[in-house]
Specification:
The structure is a single chain. With about 500 residues, the chain is α+β, with helices and mostly antiparallel strands. Helix content is about 35%, strand content about 30%. Strand 7 and strand 8 form a beta hairpin. The longest helix is centred in the C-terminal third of the chain and has 63 residues.
């Protein structure tokens, strides 16, 4: 009987629960659906339709596109040779007022990424564009300094709102769990370097917020679409970003950056200990280099950036020859200008194979079918030879033109001279010498002034000599006249005496 008495109570509770669930379901059904933002619409279409949509929507707030550039990159094989598989397709939309919009599509033209950059930031129009995109209505993941991270659905957005404004929107990738990597070598793969970086950040207590897809950077102005680098950006909490990059030499660099000086200092303290040996400092960006076994770390507080990478053993000239980088002209200039002569040679010894062809310290690489030597000069040599800074010897003039001669006009402080070298044992046939333009020009003008002064002196001496010759001839004529006159007078006097 007691159990039967409980039946009405149970039915009542059950009835109340049903009513509650019904009310909640009704409330949820009647709740307004969150509107789709403009940028989300772009990710639901293809590149061509997205371009038209972008133009249509942004023209309403005064954005006028003046130029469209198409670009693509490819998947590369293990030897970094281009395959026929497209990695990404890019459509760059450019305005007259420094705005650059980029739509990124996959091999099927489906939009998978969007970016916007502007420098210097145009606040009036920029605020309208950001409002139009609708990102600020997304869920805020984190704001730290000038960087804000937003998320909505499957999309992730990173906005840097400094003087250089940038906005990137993408579909994050999931980093697969892997075995921790405790150490790296020159031959470590891109994935191993990424795993090492994630393990390192975990040990320092940082949380991974999002990761971009690995991207490819290749040349678009050559038929071969020559590989330049792989790179991938990982976003961590407290405004920290980690980028893994692998260049054409298969050299991997892990870059950790944070614009906040306090957090950057904390990262630096966690990474460095007394097992790292401080090597040298480059004054261009105040970058200090440390070495630990076959690993290098550079710390640049002015850039809020730390880089980690592997190098060859001190006496491993063979590996240095293979992994030494082909230096661009700006890198040569930074090495020369930022280091003392002794530190410059120490830096090159750590990163490049040594060549003993000349008495002056010389470093060698073999890249792109060419043998190239770098020679840096000391201050004494620079003073003696009209501001000579460094030379590049090579056996392939096309490489020299591409990397050095064709770009020297972008370096107003430099000038260069080309020479053909006498071919001998281990000698390369072509040399480009680079000079401090101010010293070189002053030296040329000085030499021209000396030559002009010498020419004037020679001309003056010639004129004076000519004048002396004239005077000598005049004196000779005078003396001859006087002699003739004396002879005539004597002759006349003799004739008079004979006549008597």
């Amino acid at each position: 009987m007691k159990n039967l008495a409980k039946i009405p109570i149970i039915c009542f509770v059950f009835f109340v629960m049903i009513q509650t669930f019904y009310a909640q379901a009704k409330k949820k059904a009647l709740a307004p659906k969150e509107p789709t933002t403009f940028i989300e619409k772009i990710f639901k279409t293809n590149l061509d339709d997205a371009t038209l949509l972008l133009d249509e929507e942004l023209s309403e707030i005064g954005v006028v596109f003046k130029k469209v550039e198409d670009e693509k990159d490819y998947i590369y094989d293990q030897e970094l040779k281009k395959t026929d598989t497209i990695n990404s397709i890019f459509k760059h939309l450019i305005t007259d007022n420094s705005y650059r919009f980029t739509l990124i599509g996959d091999k099927n033209n489906v939009v998978i990424g969007f970016s916007l950059s502007n420098y210097p930031a145009n606040d009036d129009l920029l605020s309208k564009i950001v409002q139009k995109l609708g990102i600020k209505n997304w869920s805020l993941v984190e704001t730290k300094g000038e960087r804000s991270l937003y998320k909505k659905g499957k999309l992730f957005a990173s906005i840097n709102s400094g003087e250089y404004f940038s906005c990137e929107i993408f579909v994050p990738v999931v980093l697969l769990a892997s075995q921790p990597v405790d150490s790296l070598t020159l031959r470590s793969s891109f994935a191993e370097n990424r795993n090492f970086a994630t393990e390192l950040m975990n040990k320092m207590g940082y949380k991974l917020l999002s990761a971009k897809k690995r991207a490819v950077y290749n040349k678009t102005d050559t038929p071969a679409y020559d590989f330049i680098s792989y790179y991938q950006t990982l976003y961590y909490n407290q405004g920290t970003e980690v980028t893994i990059m692998m260049d054409e030499n298969k050299k991997n660099i892990i870059t950790i950056s944070n614009p906040n000086a306090i957090i950057f200092s904390s990262i630096k303290t966690k990474l460095t200990d007394n097992t790292w040996n401080q090597k040298y400092t480059n004054s261009v960006y105040n970058t200090t280099y440390f070495r630990k076994n076959n690993r290098m770390m550079s710390i640049a507080p002015s850039l809020n950036q730390i880089q980690l990478y592997s190098i060859a053993a001190v006496n491993d000239n063979e590996s240095k020859l293979v992994y030494g980088s082909l230096l661009y002209l700006y890198e040569l200039e930074e090495i020369y200008s930022g280091f003392t002569f002794e530190d410059r040679i120490a830096y090159m010894n750590d990163h490049f194979a040594v060549s003993d062809v000349y008495d002056t310290p010389t470093f060698i690489i073999k890249k792109k079918g060419a043998t190239i030597r770098y020679i840096f000069y000391d201050d004494k040599t620079s003073k003696e030879y009209a501001g000579l800074k460094y030379s590049v010897d090579n056996d392939n003039p096309a490489i020299a033109d591409l990397y050095y001669q064709n770009v020297i006009e972008n370096f107003p402080s430099l000038t260069s001279q080309n020479f053909a070298l006498t071919i001998g044992k281990n000698k390369l046939p072509h040399r480009t010498q680079f000079y401090d333009k101010t010293i070189y020009t002053a030296n040329v003008l000085s030499e021209q002034a000396k030559e002009s002064a010498q020419l004037l002196a020679d001309q003056r001496a010639a004129a004076e000599q000519k004048q002396r010759d004239i005077l000598r001839e005049q004196e000779k004529a005078r003396r001859n006249a006087e002699l003739t006159n004396t002879i005539n007078q004597t002759t006349n006097e003799l004739l008079k005496l004979l006549q008597k």
